[in-house]
Amino acid sequence: MKKYILLIIMIMFASCKKSYIAEIEPNNDFSSATPAELNREVRGYLDSASDTDFYQLISSEDTLVSLELSAVKGVNHSVEVFFDDGGQVRPVKLIDDVRKSSAEKMPNLFLQSGRYYFKISYGDRDDAEGNKDAYYVLKLTSGEYISSEKEGNDDFNSATAIEQGETFSGYYYPAFNKLNRRKDSELKEEDYYAVQVDCSAENPVLLDVSVTGVENVDSVLNLYDPFQVLIATANNNGSGQGENFSDIGLTKPGKYYVSVSSVNFEVNFDVKYQIQMMVKPYDTSIEMESNNDYQRANRIIDNVINGKIFPAGDSDFFEINSGGSDGMFRIEVIPPVGMDIKLELLDESGETLAEADNFKDGEKEIFPNFYSESRFYLKVTSSGSYADAEMGYAVSVNESKKDPTEEIEPNDSVSSANKVKTRIIKGYISSNNDKDYFLIDPGSRVKVKFSVSGIDGTEFDFSISDSLGYAIKTETINGTDVKVIEEMIDSRGYIVIESKGDVSNFPYSIEIGD
What we know:
By secondary structure, this protein is mainly β.
C-alpha cells in the first residue's frame, strides 16, 4: 500500500513541474546566468531600475533559432546575445527597437555548437523603472537550418557563405543593429553574404545578384570585392520590389561580398526575402559591368557587343582599337523600344570628339564615318530617365579602308578642316548641328566651280568662305537638289557644310572643277 501511495506522490510531483523556466535571482552577470533551454519559455522580471537578467544556453549543434521577447507594458527592453568563444565572451547581436510596450524579435538567429548568453535589460531610450508585477517571456524556438542567412551576419567576417546558383533566404529584421558603429552605416541592420569566385584578368567571369521584393521594404544591395572595396550599389526600385546586379565583371579571384539592407530602417518580420548569386562565363559579346568610365571600358573584340542601361543614369564605355591608317569606322547602336539612346566618341584622354543624339525613342543612332588611327572610346547613355534590367541595346562597329574622297570626322571647325585632295568630296550630315569644313588651297587666286548634290529628305547650307572662315557665298541645298556654284578663291579658302536640323545616313557629294 505504501508503494502505491509513493508512486502516486511521484506522479503528482512530476505533473506539477513548471512548463516554463523562472529566472533565478541574482542573475546579473555571466557567472550567475540562469540556465535556459530551447523550445521552453523563460520568465523573468525587470523589477528594479538597475536590474539586468542573464540567461545561459548550451547549444549541442548548429541550429537556427527564432528569438522572441514579449512586450512589457510601459517598458522598452532589449536583448543582447553573446557567444563564449573559448573563454572569450563576444557580442553577437543587440536587439532593441527603441519602442515601449513592444516585443523584441529575431526570426533567424544562428547558434553554432557552444555556450551562449542572453542579456535582458532596459533599452537605450527607456527611463528605467522597476516593474515587479509584469513579467517578460523569452522564447528560443529551434528550427531547421536550410539555405538561410546566419544571424548575426552583420559584417564581412561573419558573412553567410553561399554557393553560386543557390537561393538563400533572410529577413529585414530587426530594424536596428546597435552593435554597428561603422560611420557609413551606423545602426543599420545589414545582412552579409559571401561567394567564392575563381577568375583572372585573362579569364573574367560575370556575376548576377538578385534579391526578391518584400512588402513595405525598400531594399538596397551593395557589392564588395575581395579587398572589401565597394564596387556596385543597387537601389533602383521602390518599396516592395526586388533589386539586382547584372553582368558585373570580375577579374580578381577571391571572396566577393553582398550586403542586403533596407532604406530608413524598414522591417518585415513575417516575409522572407530570397537572394541568389550566379557566376557566368564572360561572353565577349556582352558588356561587363562596371564599365562606367573610359578607364574601365569594355573592349569590343568581334565588332558587336550588347549592353543594358541600368540603373537610370547608367553610362557604358567601350574601347575600340583601330587597325591602322585605314581606320574608317561606321558605328551603329540599336536601342530597345522606349529608349532614346545617345552616343559619344572620346579620345584616349577621355575628351569628347563627337556625339550623336539625333533620333527618337527606339530609333538607332549612327556615326557613319568616324576616322581614327589609334584607340578611341564609345560612350552609350540614355537621354532620358530610361532604365531596363532586361532589355538591352546592340552596338556594331565596322572598320573599312579609308576612301580618299570621304570626309574625316571630326572636321567641325577651321582648325580641323579636311584638306581637299580629290575632285570629289563625300560627307555626312551626322547630327542636327553638324558642320563640315574642307580646306581649298589652290595657291593662287582662281575661280572654282562647285557642283553640289543634296540628300533626299534633308536641307543644308553650302558656303564658300575666305581664309579666316568667313562666308563669301551661301546656297541652301534642299533634298536631291544639284546646284552649281562658282566663286573666286584667293589662294586659300574653305567649303563649309552646315546642317539645318536634318540628319541622314546617306552622303552628300561635291564635285570640284576649274
